[in-house]
Specification:
The chain is 70% helix and 0% strand. The protein is mainly α and 171 residues long. The protein is elongated, with a radius of gyration of 20 Å. The two termini are 16 Å apart. The relative contact order is 0.14.
Length: 171
């Protein structure tokens, strides 16, 4: 695992754990408060709504980093290894370009959604869209890394990755 992949995975793990823990604690505290006192925290519904996109996007990027997304390989299995290598490089570069295009489109929308504020905390909508943009940029980086790996490898194996989806040493 190179530095870029390590940094992306580490950042996404931190975001995943922090958002999950904060959402859980707030929802449990608000539920206990509601049943114990009959009142609830006004802002307790907004924070999970704001953190949920960060949780989802970090999970999507982690799944991409570990090769855990669904893939079909029967066409690539039918072609020679050299053609498979070039097709792999080209497809990863197309994927990276598409992620870059989506990230740029999201960036251009940030000014528009920045004026939308959450009702209680007044957090701008650009925070949520920013999470999508950052996730798309990380996915693009991972796609470029995959294209580079295919470029450096004389023989490209198709099919799912052979390493475990979640490295045990990091948990």
């Amino acid at each position: 695992m190179n530095f870029i992949e390590w940094a992306v995975v580490a950042l996404c793990r931190v975001l995943l754990w922090v958002s999950t823990v904060v959402i859980f604690v707030i929802l449990v505290a608000n539920t206990v408060l509601r049943y114990a006192t009959g009142a609830s925290l006004q802002w307790a519904n907004e924070v999970p709504e704001l953190l949920f996109p960060w949780l989802v996007m970090s999970g999507v990027v982690l799944a991409a980093a570990h090769g855990a997304h669904i893939t079909t390989t029967f066409l690539m299995d039918a072609v020679p290894a050299t053609l498979r290598r070039w097709a792999t490089i080209a497809s990863w570069l197309v994927v990276a370009a598409l992620y870059g295009t989506l990230a740029l489109a999201t960036y251009r929308m940030l000014d528009i959604v920045h004026d939308e504020k959450s009702p209680i905390l007044h957090v701008p909508g650009s925070l949520t869209y920013g999470c999508v943009m950052v996730g798309l940029l990380m996915l693009g980086l991972l796609a470029v890394k995959s294209a580079w790996n295919a470029w450096q490898s004389p023989h490209v194996e198709s099919g799912p990755r052979t390493e475990p989806a979640v490295p045990e040493a990091h948990w």
